[in-house]
Amino acid sequence: MSQPARPGAAPAHAAFRSFPSNAWYAAAWDHEVGRNLLPKTIANRPIVFYRTAGGRAVALADACWHRLAPLSMGKLRGDDEVMCGYHGICYDADGRATFMPAQETINPSATVHSYPVVERHRYVWVWPGDPALADPDLVPDLHMNDHPDWAGDGKTIHVNCSYQLIVDNLMDLTHEQFVHGSSIGHDALSESDFEVTHDAHTVTVTKWMLGIDPPPFWKRNLQDRFPDYEGPVDRWQIIHFTAPSTVAIDVGVAKAGTGAPDGDRSQGVTGTVINTMTPETDRTCFYLWAFARDWCLDKQVITTRLREGVSGVFFEDEVMLEAQQRGIEANPDYDFYNLNIDAGSMWTRRIVQRMIDAERGSDSEPPDEASGDAAVAMGAVTGAANAAVHEEGTGMAAEVAGGIAGHRQQPTVGLMGRGL
Amino acid sequence: MAATSAKKWRRARVLDVCEVAEHVRQVVLEPEHLEAPAAPGSHIDIGVYVNGRADVRSYSVVGMGAYGTEIVLGVQLARQSRGGSAYMHALRRGQEVSITQPLQNFPLNYGKPAYVLAAGGIGITALVAMGRALKARGADYQFVYGARSRGLMAFADELVAEHGDRLELRVDDEGTGLDVAGLVAGVPDGGELYVCGPTPMLDAIKAAWAAAGRRPADLRFETFGSSGRFAPEAFTVRIPRLGLETVVPHDVSMLEALEACGADLMFDCRRGECGLCQVKVVDVEGVIDHRDVFLSDAQHQAGDRLQCCVSRVVSARTGGLAGADGQPAVVTIDVP
């Protein structure tokens, strides 16, 4: 790992880039895992994902037991097996060898690790650590992503920064005023007070801005429900963090003075920004996000408007976060200076550091950054090869898949960029 | 976690050695460095001295001690052995040994609808931790533990206390010996059977499993190639092409004996799994005692090759051939 255990080390140290292994991480959107071999590096581990003919998502170590060739360079065989592309050894969904070349028996040691997988809330979650501890009930609650009371969609961004920097970013939305001035930013963001609460695994940051002019993004959303309303709004941002890397943000506006702070949101619109970050290596991550709304559920065009709008907003974050990562690496002798506005992120870092400390000496040495980088390089090669046979998605899935690919090419065409 | 991993050697101190059954000693080691507690099904390799020569043996990890850092082993003294198990039995408290980190070739797969664990004799050492893990997870499992007699059964009392009705003791000399067909039939569809025991037991279970048409990958087993159909005997091995002939003592493997007399053989796993040390059998006066899991039953029957790291030859009389004269066995082989 990049940082040895140091008693008393500040958990918000700039170089802190570690992550727990005993956690569920969203590896992909459900539609991305299909009847093809998808290599991904998760928490420095090379993993190959596929789906059985019966529809079950599978995550195997992407290294053949025999001589460590990537299984993702092989092919699917039968209903639930993968065949190594080098010497033909086959493994079932549990990672147990079912065929070996040039012998009549199966070597009893021939297994690759089968990572625990759960599909929930439109994501495929994988548990990199001790499989004995992989309790599906520990998957973060992101039900708004597939609950009938909500409508929405999202994308995946590959970001060249530690997942922790994105958690920091989401735990303090003061930055919206400066990074996202044209869309969701507002002077009230840095002027209003906030409250931070926490327990052993969660942190909540609550901020209310009463009687303000709505920023462009929220003015447009409120007009979906109340086309004639022009007045001030009460705005809320309630940030819920679930360790180690999921942040669901309850956001919205209501006509000012209609009781939203007391729980009556009938005169407003509510959204949930769903964010879950998955460490790829110590300094890169996958950022899976979605925006779910509670208004005009039947209007698909609003789903697209919000997805593309938020996509543009998040590109502004991506630019800053990757620059921040480079800044941290370019200033190895300097540490963070943490401010009052960082309270939420400080709590997340302390909780995550406790998870990491609890694993030290009890986790079988997690792979380090060098092996993670090697895994990424390997996955890039086999992933490109496999992409050629990737089945075309349909409908929403194809829209999202296209969004992932197109994100970097057309980052700023979102409606927010035009100040709507 | 990974199916295999590079071995890392470190020193360990012997904390305790005590008798836990006839010919079985529990050995407790504390390594100077331990990344993680041993996962169920794992083993360690340990440096031993056999006939004055340094060698390596593998022992299953029975479990971790109360502090989470002590590695508990169970070692059965092989009959007439001056080999690895004799070295292990001679260990004394405070002594230093050299061991690897826990190595995993027999991983337990979580999330199955049902499990049966079947231990024969000292094979129990590989399954104790699995039973504990399954119980902790509230899994549906049965634990079957068989042996020739009750006195040979290490850890039996603890296992009865721990597993209650889920544990079945099968004792040959009490007339309750293991019923292999019943064992296989008792594994629910989609469930897994984990086996560790002597070769004849494993062979019988493999045959019953295949005969029942069960999915091969659902039968999980581990072998250290440590037991065969017959007790080991000294025999002679000849390689005419190389002009070599040597006696293989009862406590030395054919591979080791051949290496000692100058044959340059390839090998890797040294437990009868990989197939690299295979030799051609040209002629045999006696009976081959195959102890590998590389060859199929049909290949064992054919008898034209053997895995010399574990397999042996016994005299015709020991092997039960009609009219045998009791002469020590001789095997003539050719090597790659």
TrEMBL record, chain A:
GO biological process: one example: methylation
- Cite a single GO MF annotation: metal ion binding
Per its UniProt record, what InterPro entries does this chain match? Cholesterol_7-desaturase, Rieske_2Fe-2S, Rieske_2Fe-2S_sf, VanA_C_cat
Q: Which UniProt keywords apply?
A: 2Fe-2S, Iron, Iron-sulfur, Metal-binding, Methyltransferase, Oxidoreductase, Transferase
In terms of superkingdom, the source organism counts as Bacteria
PROSITE patterns attached here?
RIESKE
Does the keyword Isomerase belong to this entry? no
Ranges for domain Rieske come to: 24-126
Name of the protein in question: Vanillate demethylase subunit A
TrEMBL record, chain B:
InterPro entries associated with the record: 2Fe-2S_ferredoxin-like_sf, 2Fe-2S_ferredoxin-type, 2Fe2S_fd_BS, Beta-grasp_dom_sf, FAD-bd_FR_type, FNR_nucleotide-bd, MRET, Riboflavin_synthase-like_b-brl
Which SUPFAM superfamilies does this one have? 2Fe-2S ferredoxin-like, Ferredoxin reductase-like, C-terminal NADP-linked domain, Riboflavin synthase domain-like
Q: Where is the FAD-binding FR-type domain?
A: 7-109
A GO BP entry is: methylation
Query: Which keywords does this Swiss-Prot/TrEMBL entry list?
Result: Methyltransferase, Transferase
Which PROSITE patterns does this UniProt record tie to the protein?
A: 2FE2S_FER_1 (PS00197), FAD_FR (PS51384)
Spell out the molecular function terms from Gene Ontology: 2 iron, 2 sulfur cluster binding; methyltransferase activity; oxidoreductase activity
Q: Which cofactor does it need?
A: FAD
Q: Is Protein transport included in the keywords of this UniProt record? A: no
Any Pfam family the entry gives: Fer2
Keyword Isomerase in the entry? The reply is no
Name the chain's protein: Vanillate demethylase subunit B
